[in-house]
Design a protein that fits this description.
five-stranded mixed beta sheet, globular
């Protein structure tokens, strides 16, 4: 793990530093600022440019994004990288330690999905929708199912496969996949998280689907939102 750059002087200047030995408190010190965890979420599927991060997080100003990126870099959670020619662009990528936040983020997402306040029709970034599939998929419900899946989410291409109960996702051309789901992330979320047959959703023109319908339905059937319980 890369050494952290946070100094005692930094701690003294931090207005919201908890000064608590608990790991939970330290985690909140490192990623508890508004937008910080969502920036990390956007990087879980690979490096992103500044403009791509801002486009995926509606309401985040360039100034706040700059501040959060600087803070996350100082904490050792992400780093800047330069892409080689012909891209010649600067991107932000999670460090090995930063990638360890995937488990906590997915666990928080699963927990919050059980809230009656959870609204799958709200805006959602392309990457966040794909990560929601990884979070909410119940592979144990159909353990022999291992399809080759394609997605175009908000126009962005993704390829996914179920490997040992895990949804492996990459940003790549979905050409040749067994099935292809296309649409805006909020409409796709409605497709996967409502108990409505895929054929009905296609008829309503919420999403576009290509491939074997039975395979597509079998995949959609792996997703159910948790039921809120508050005994």
């Amino acid at each position: 793990m890369e050494s952290l750059k946070i100094t005692n002087a930094d701690l003294g200047k931090a207005r919201r530093w908890y000064r608590d030995a608990c790991g939970t408190a330290l985690a909140m010190d490192l990623v508890g600022e508004r937008w910080a965890l969502l920036i990390v979420r956007e990087l879980l599927l690979g490096p992103r440019r500044f403009g791509e991060l801002r486009a995926g997080l509606v309401g985040l100003s360039a100034n706040i994004l700059t501040q959060r990126l600087e803070g996350l870099e100082k904490a050792g959670i992400l780093r800047k990288r330069s892409l080689p020619s012909p891209a010649n662009a600067q991107v932000y990528a999670l460090t090995k330690w930063g990638l360890g936040l995937e488990g906590p983020i997915l666990a928080l997402s699963r927990w919050a999905a059980g809230s009656p306040a959870h609204d799958v029709t709200l805006p959602l970034s392309n990457g966040a929708f794909m990560l929601s599939l990884r979070t909410m998929m119940d592979a144990a419900a159909d353990p022999a199912f291992a399809p080759d899946l394609g997605f175009r989410v908000g126009g962005e291409p993704f390829r996914a496969r179920i490997v040992d109960g895990w949804l492996a996702i990459e940003r790549s051309d979905p050409a040749g996949a067994e099935v292809l789901f296309e649409g805006e992330p909020s409409k796709l979320a409605t497709t996967f998280y409502r108990p409505v047959p895929l054929t009905e959703l296609i008829d309503e023109a919420r999403v576009r689907f290509t491939g074997d319908l039975a395979t597509g339905q079998r995949f959609v059937d792996l997703f159910r939102l948790p039921v809120f319980e508050n005994d």
